Amino acid sequence: MRHLVWPYIFPVWYDSTSEGYSQISGMKRLIKAIEFNSNNQFEQRPNLAPRENYYDYAATYRLLLMMYKHCISDPAMEDFNEPHGDFFTQYLADLAPMANPIELLRQKKSLILYGVPGTGKTRTAMNLAGQLLRGNAPEQPAEDSVKVIQFHPGYSYANFIIGISPTVTNGQVTYETKAGILYDRAKIAQQKPNQDFVLIIDEINRANLPEVLGEVMYCLEYRGEQGMVSLPHIITFPAENDPFQAGHRFYIPENLYIIGTMNHVDRSISGFDMALRRRFAWFKLEPMTWLEQKLRDENPQFEESDLNDFLNRAVDLNNAIASGDAPDANQAEPRIPLNTDHQIGDSYFYAIKDIVTANNGQPRRILPQHRERLWLYFLQPLLEDYLGNDVHLYRDALKRLGESFSD
Questions:
Q1: What angle is formed at CA 166 by the lines to CA 160 and CA 170, rounded to 5 degrees?
Q2: What is the DSSP annotation of 204-227?
Q3: Which residue has the higher pLDDT, 326 or 136?
Q4: Rounded distance between C-alpha atoms, residue 330 and residue 110, angstroms
Q5: What is residue 345's DSSP assignment?
Q6: Contacts for 311 with CB less than 8 Å, ≥ 6 apart
Q7: Is the distance from CB of 306 to CB of 359 less than 8 angstroms?
Q8: Pairing of strands 42-44, 162-169
Q9: N or C: which end of the chain has fewer CB within 10 A?
């Protein structure tokens, strides 16, 4: 194994990447977990199951695939590849789903999609729900299979689980205990055990999560009847077929999946303590993942050279933000206190499609004045918001970033 991997893994060890440590940790485990057999082929060592090291291998899959493709294309490796290629190809195929958040969702049943603003978290959540529900079936899932809600500071336990709600009848106000959204979705899922359901909670961290979830946080960790809790309120007029006995015996069924989306940049609305955090799997959506394809699919199309230049400038801008640098910055000037958490999401750059007007059926040109408008009215205000009260200290640095992107 080392003859295949070491020449290509060593350079990565000394590069500073955002996932560098986890990549190396996962690679070490992989190297320890497979060895040569008597036929000089790869095989998995006994008593070790690298596929179970889910989170390490999800992070290292892309690195493994890159190395493998490099190796099989190297003429010097031709004799070496032949006896080992089949096994290693299959091994990578087994690891491939781990790079996809759908596998995280299936495994943990509760998933958080997080990332900087504009990375398409809500759209990704909807796509994941469709992928989960369709499986290998071509037909569309049932209309009641997906429910989308959005949390906000006013969202409460009564809205989400169960609570007292006023009802007006003939001018008289009465108070009844009614089921919340999660209770209703769980009841539907329990009554249809052969069908999967998805609850998407957009902006999940904008509510006071410990207060909204209450004792149901226990149900997130232990699905089914093993996670049963008794709710503090009992539904006033329970349905005859209520599987949770009006709240006496509530749990979240195995076939109800929960996807939350959150912008993790604003730490003031994090909402996740450590106990709550471990109830979810976490998948980060990186910027600059779907922008190019969306812009190339635009009709009328953009001029090819202009589009390539625009995409390169967007990448350069995010790289400068991630490193806290500004082009040609004076060394005596303070570094911009920004990092990868402040990179700009695809949706902000995608606004260029509304700035550049149609060109009588001809490919649209992205000119400096278009990039300048995007910078002034979309990108710069976002960065200024990140810098907060200290923005006046970095006016010159922001100006240089804008000039580098626009000119």
A1: 145
A2: GGGS-HHHHHGGGHHHHHS-GGGG
A3: 326
A4: 47
A5: P
A6: 291, 292, 295
A7: no
A8: unpaired
A9: C
Distance CA 362, CA 9 (A): 47
For residue 212, the one-letter residue type is V
Task: Retrieve residue 399's tokens.
Answer: 């100006």
pLDDT of residue 43: 52
Question: Token pair for residue 253?
Answer: 């069924």
CA distance 31 to 399: 48
CA distance 400 to 317: 11
Who contacts 281 (Cβ-Cβ below 8 Å, separation ≥6)? 104, 105, 107, 108, 110, 111, 112
Strand positions, DSSP E, 170-303: 172-179, 197-202, 256-263, 281-284
**Could you tell me the two tokens for 368?**
């400096």
Who contacts 263 (Cβ-Cβ below 8 Å, separation ≥6)? 114, 115, 116, 117, 121, 203, 205
In the numeric block, the tokens 């009844």 are attached to 176
- 114: enclosing H helix or E strand: strand 110-115
Query: From the CB of residue 15, how many other CB atoms can be counted at a distance below 10 Å?
Result: 8
Question: With b meaning 16 or more CB within 10 Å and e meaning fewer, what string describes 89-109?
Answer: eebeeebeebbebebbbeebb
Among residues 154, 160, 8, 150, the alpha carbon closest in space to that of 77 is found at 8
Q: Find the mean pLDDT for residues 245-255.
A: 92
Residue-wise pLDDT tens digits, 125-177: 999 999 899 874 555 566 789 999 999 999 999 999 998 888 888 888 888 88
Q: Per the structure block, which two tokens stand in for 373?
A: 């408008």
Displacement of CA 163 from its chain's centroid (Å): 32
Give the number of other CB atoms < 10 A from CB of residue 119: 27
Residue 241 identity (one-letter amino acid): N
Among positive and negative, which fits the CA dihedral 114, 116, 122, 123?
Answer: negative
Check if the beta carbon of residue 321 is closer than 8 Å to that of residue 155: no
Contact between 50 and 44 under an 8 Å Cβ cutoff? The reply is: yes
